[in-house]
Design goal:
The protein is mostly helical and 248 residues long. Among the domains are: 63 residues, Serine Threonine Protein Phosphatase 5, Tetratricopeptide repeat (Alpha Horseshoe), CATH 1.25.40; 64 residues, no CATH class. It contains 14 helices and no strands. Helix 6 packs antiparallel against helix 7 and helix 7 packs antiparallel against helix 8. The longest helix is centred in the C-terminal third of the chain and has 17 residues. It is elongated and about 75 Å long.
Length: 248
């Protein structure tokens, strides 16, 4: 796709217009080539034909490059030109959340939800903001809506599982983590979190398997290894008394 776009741009030796550069940037974004996408969008924005969408897309690229302030600046311009741009509110809200500015994030994400009520991503992003500010109950409501709208998307179900876990609803968390693993068996973080659920549910042997599998799947955080080793030692201590044999 990208090659065909570039061929069209180069045909006739004419300099590319803004629309062609935006199309090239979209293709680069699909491939995760954020620096090249940023360059193409910056060239497009130097042209008089630049519109709100070009600013919004560069805001997305800035966010993906870990530059939330630059993302907010671009989203500001996009929204000044197109006040009903749900995606721009979504991008700016996500950037505010990345900066720890929860109140501003929630304002923008609420607008995104209102403008695009059938888009699961809007609820999921607001759910993350709620979870980051410690409101797991509201996060759960948003994640549940995102799962309803896009049940095939494992990130939404994983996020809902995290909200359940924060609320101490370990059985529901376990079910959602298991659903994630049914689609992505090597999802290391889901394996680890399900292992923690199993510890809470007193399923020590199964917890041990999940924690070991998380490490084998590539989750190399030292705390994971320590947790797995701690569970192993506790099980060894409990063998004599018949403890730690729960399975599921």
């Amino acid at each position: 796709m990208l090659d065909s776009i570039r061929r069209r741009i180069s045909d006739g030796g004419e300099p590319p217009d803004g629309a062609a550069l935006v199309a090239e940037a979209r293709a680069l974004m699909e491939e995760g080539r954020w620096v090249e996408a940023w360059r193409a969008l910056t060239r497009a924005l130097r042209m008089e034909t630049a519109d709100a969408e070009a600013y919004h897309l560069r805001g997305v690229v800035n966010l993906m490059r870990g530059q939330p302030r630059a993302a907010i600046a671009d989203a500001d311009v996009a929204l000044a030109r197109a006040p009903g741009h749900a995606e721009a509110y979504y991008t700016r809200g996500s950037a505010y959340d990345m900066l720890g500015k929860s109140d501003q994030a929630l304002l923008d994400l609420a607008k995104a939800v209102a403008l695009a009520p059938e888009d699961a991503r809007m609820y999921a992003s607001r759910g993350v903001a709620y979870l980051n500010m410690g409101d797991a109950a509201r996060a759960l409501a948003d994640f549940s809506e995102s799962v309803r709208l896009a049940p095939q998307e494992t990130p939404h179900r994983f996020s809902r599982a995290m909200a359940y876990y924060r609320l101490g609803r370990y059985e529901q968390a376990f079910e959602d983590f298991t659903a994630v693993l049914a689609r992505e068996p090597q999802h290391a973080e889901a394996l680890f979190q399900r292992g923690l659920c199993r510890l809470r549910l007193r399923q020590d042997e199964a917890a041990q398997r999940d924690l070991d599998a998380a490490v084998a799947a590539g989750l190399h955080d030292g705390s994971v290894r320590k947790q797995a080793e701690y569970v192993r030692k506790q099980r060894e201590k409990g063998r004599g008394s018949g403890k730690g044999k729960g399975k599921k």
